[in-house]
Design a protein that fits this description.
The strands form five sheets. This protein has a five-stranded mixed β-sheet with strand order 7-6-12-9-10. Strands 14-13-17-15-16 form a five-stranded mixed β-sheet, covered by helices on one side. The protein has a three-stranded antiparallel β-sheet with strand order 2-1-5, covered by helices on one side. The chain is of the alpha+beta class. The radius of gyration is 39 Å and the shape is rod-shaped. The termini are far apart. The protein has six helices and 17 strands. The chain has three domains: about 70 residues, wza like fold; about 80 residues, Outer membrane lipoprotein wza fold like (Roll); about 80 residues, Outer membrane lipoprotein wza fold like (Roll), CATH 3.10.560.10. It is about 20% helix and about 30% strand.
């Protein structure tokens, strides 16, 4: 009896549920897939080509170029200054102008379809002097710019790498500074890099007396030439050389140097300058 009663109750519940009106299930809303976004932080520059589109306003779609003045022309709102603004900032500015006079809450899309030529100059003692195209980010570091110009020439002044800004400011860097932290020196449109030629090109000292190859000894491009190094470049001392009384004539002032003592003691090197005349006397037995 109890089993029959439970079956009857179950049947009545199923019938009751079946008689209730079912609420129509709305289909699941499609989740829009956002298109890949452009770099909204990109700063607009002259000669950039822009494309404007406004949702449900096909007549407003247009392509326009950023002029040298930074202006770009758009339907209805006319000339708008967008140069120097980020893509995101320019988009909001244009949207606000349409919203102010012509449309209600317009949905504006602004994209860069091509980038204007943004150049810096790399001049002087580099292997490929000329113009370097900036990437779309609008900046490049000093080390990368020099690399794109082929690197330094053999006769480059490694202590005279000048950066001249478009606004007129300038700074000078050494090769070691560029290699150590060139990425920190950012360059922008209109900046110039000028690499000077070493002032030691064609400069020399003269070695006379008891050396193996008397005559002129050229300076290395970095200018680092000391007395021991110069004598080594002249083939070294002759067996009859008096190493204790080597003289260096500099503009009429004579310095007497004991090269043997200098070498043995590891004392500070005797630096030479262009035009020095070194004389190595013969030993007196």
């Amino acid at each position: 009896m109890a089993s029959l009663l439970r079956c009857l109750i179950f049947t009545l519940c199923v019938s009751a549920l079946g008689s209730l009106p079912l609420r129509a299930q709305s289909p699941a809303a499609a989740i829009p897939v956002a298109p890949a976004k452009a770099d909204t932080t990109y700063v607009l520059k002259p000669d950039d080509m822009l494309e404007l589109s406004v949702f449900e306003e096909a007549d407003l779609a247009t392509a326009t170029r950023v002029l040298k003045t930074g202006e770009a022309v758009f339907p209805l709102i006319g000339s708008v200054h967008v140069g120097g603004q980020t893509l995101d900032g320019a988009t909001r500015k244009i949207r606000d102008l349409y919203d102010e006079k012509y449309l209600v809450n317009p949905k504006v899309s602004l994209t860069v379809t091509s980038y204007g030529q943004q150049l810096i100059s790399v001049l002087g003692s580099v292997k490929s002097p000329g113009s370097v195209q900036l990437p779309s980010s609008g900046s490049i570091d000093l080390a990368s710019a020099l690399a794109l110009a082929g690197g330094l020439q053999e006769d480059a002044d490694t202590s005279g790498i000048s950066v001249i800004r478009a606004g007129g400011a300038s700074a000078v860097y050494t090769k070691d500074q560029v290699l150590a932290g060139g990425a920190a020196v950012k360059l922008g449109v209109g900046d110039r890099i000028v690499v000077g030629q070493s002032r030691f090109i064609g400069k020399s000292v003269t070695i006379l007396g008891k050396v193996m190859r008397p005559g002129p000894v050229e300076f290395p491009v970095d200018g680092a030439l000391d007395l021991v190094g110069a004598i080594s470049r002249a083939g070294g001392f002759h067996e009859l050389a008096n190493m204790k009384k080597v003289t260096v004539n500099r503009n009429g002032k004579v310095h007497v140097v004991d090269v043997r003592k200098l070498s043995e003691s590891g004392s500070e090197a005797f630096k030479l300058v262009p035009g020095d005349v070194v004389s190595v006397p013969e030993r007196v037995f």
